[in-house]
Design brief:
374 residues, single chain, 5-stranded mixed sheet, 16 strands, 7-stranded antiparallel sheet, tRNA-splicing ligase RtcB, globular, alpha+beta
Amino acid sequence: MSTPDVKMWLAEPLPGSVNPILQRLLKTDGVRHIRIMPDVHLAHEVCVGMVVATAGTILPGAVGSDIGCGMAALAFDCDAGLLASEASAARLLAGLYRRVPANRQPEPRDLPRPLARNTTSDPRLETMKRREARIQFGTLGRGNHFVEFQRDESDRMWLMLHSGSRAIGQAIYDLHLARSTRTLGNIGVLDAASEPGRAYLNDMAWAVQYAAANRRAMAEAVAQLVAALFEIAADWPTYADCSHNYVCGEPHFGTELWVHRKGAISARENEPGIIPGSMGTASFHVEGRGEPESLCSSSHGAGRRMSRSDARRRITTRQLSRQLDGLWYDHRIAAALREEAPRAYRDVDAVLRAQRDLTRIVRRLVPVLCYKGT
C-alpha cells in the first residue's frame, strides 16, 4: 500500500502539535490523501482545518463530535447604521437572549418533518431525538458559536451565525467511536460497507441535517426579532448555509473516496462558502475555485492560535475590551469571552491569502454586534 500523499496550504509554520496526529493518520487504514488548511490547529481527535480522504473506511474522529457544525448568513433590507446607537444595540442584544437561547428552549419544539420522520440507528439516539434534540432545537451552543450582525462594503447589514448539532451530534460520535476499531490517537475506523459503517453514515447525515435546520430556525427567530424591533425585513433569497464537519462520498483523481472535512468547507468551482474571522475581526463570503489538489476544500475560519486555557491565562478583560473596541457585546460576560478574543486566533486575512488558489472573495464583512452564550 502506498503512503498517503499530504499537501498543505499554510498561513504560518505548521504548529508542532499537529505533526503527531498527521503521523497517526499516515498509518491509519484506508487513508489515501491528507490536506491541511491554513486554519489548522490541534483538536481532540483529528486537527481542525484538516481534510482526510479514505478508500473504503470511515473515520469518526476525522469528523469529530460537533457533526454538521457550520455557518449561515442572511442579509437585511437596511444598512448597518441601524445599530449605530447604544440603545438600538441593547434592545437587539436583549432580544437575542430571549429568542435564541444558548443552551435549551423553555419547552420542547417540534422538529421539521424530515428530521422527525428519518430514523437513527439506535434506540438511545431515538430517545434523544424526542427529548434533548427538541429541547435544543433553535439554540446556539457555547464556545466559539455566535450570532453576529455585520456590515459589508456597501454598509448593508448581514446576519452571520455559527452553530452545530448540539448534544445529539456528540452522542452520535460517542456511540460510533465505541463501535469502531480503535487506532493510534483514538481516531476510530469503520468499514464503510459494513453495517456499523452504514449506521454511522446514516446517523451522521441526520446530524448534518439537524444542524442545518437548527441554523435556519435561529435565523428565522432573529429575522422575526429584527422585524418586531425595527420593522426591517430579511432578504431571504440571500440566505446561505455551509457545513464544516462531515464526511461524504466524492470522486477525486478518478476514484470514489470518502472525504472527511473537519473544520474545512467544500470549495467546488463557484460553490458559495462562509469563512468567519474571530470575534471582532472581519469575515468573508467566498466562492470555491474547485482546486483538485485541495480535494475541492478550503479553510473554515481563522483558526485558533491559542488554546482556550492559554487565552484565559494570557488575555485580560481589559485587553479584550481594547481588542473589541467598536463592537457591541455583553460586557457582563467579558471574563468568559477572553478565550474568544481576536488575539487568540490567527489573522483571517492571512488565512485567505494563503488559500487564494482555493477560494475567491465575494464579500468582506466587519462585525457590528456579537451575541455569544456562556
